[in-house]
């Protein structure tokens, strides 16, 4: 199997981002290999992992200071294709969706930043 990894900063607290990512249904629509597997959630380590046939993955949220975090997505697969590009797109999609939902929730609760 070949290993791939992508890291990206997210303007959201690690706690809040992980809570979004750990919800059932948050990841399968964005991450390949999760549609037919049951992710294992490690809340203490802020880690979600999964395995499906010839595909294994781990998504970790790292605290990067006040209101900031980093998403680290690592996979092992022998599937063909541009896996690195798929990882980059998946991380961008989940980060965008998480921050968008947080903005909507803040507006709904009138918890604005200004």
Category by helix and strand content: alpha+beta
Shape estimate: globular
User: Counting H and I runs of at least 4 residues, what is the number of helices?
Assistant: 2
Q: Percent range for helical residues?
A: 25-40%
β-strand percent reads: 25-35%
Give a short synopsis of this structure.
The protein is 31% helix and 32% strand. The chain has helices at residues 14-22, 83-108; strands at residues 2-10, 40-42, 47-52, 55-63, 69-77.
Secondary structure blueprint with pairings:
Blueprint: E1 2-10, H1 14-22, E2 40-42, E3 47-52, E4 55-63, E5 69-77, H2 83-108
Antiparallel strand pairs: 1-5, 2-3, 3-4, 4-5
Helix pairs in contact: 1-2
What does this structure look like?
This protein has helices at 14-22, 83-108; strands at 2-10, 40-42, 47-52, 55-63, 69-77. The model has no long low-confidence stretch (mean pLDDT 84). The chain is of the alpha+beta class. A hairpin with a 2-residue loop joins strand 3 (47-52) and strand 4 (55-63). Helix 1 packs across helix 2 (83-108).
Features:
114 residues; alpha+beta; 5-stranded antiparallel β-sheet; 2 helices; 5 strands
């Amino acid at each position: 199997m070949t290993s791939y990894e992508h890291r990206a900063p997210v303007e959201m607290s690690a706690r809040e981002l992980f809570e979004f990512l750990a919800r059932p249904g948050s990841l399968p629509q964005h991450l390949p290999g999760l549609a037919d597997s049951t992710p294992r959630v490690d809340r203490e380590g802020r880690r979600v992992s999964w395995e499906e046939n010839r595909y294994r993955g781990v998504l970790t949220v790292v605290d990067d200071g006040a209101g900031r975090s980093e998403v680290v997505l690592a996979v092992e697969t022998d599937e063909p294709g541009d896996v690195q590009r798929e990882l980059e797109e998946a991380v961008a999609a989940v980060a965008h969706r998480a921050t968008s939902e947080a903005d909507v929730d803040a507006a709904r609760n009138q918890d604005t930043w200004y």
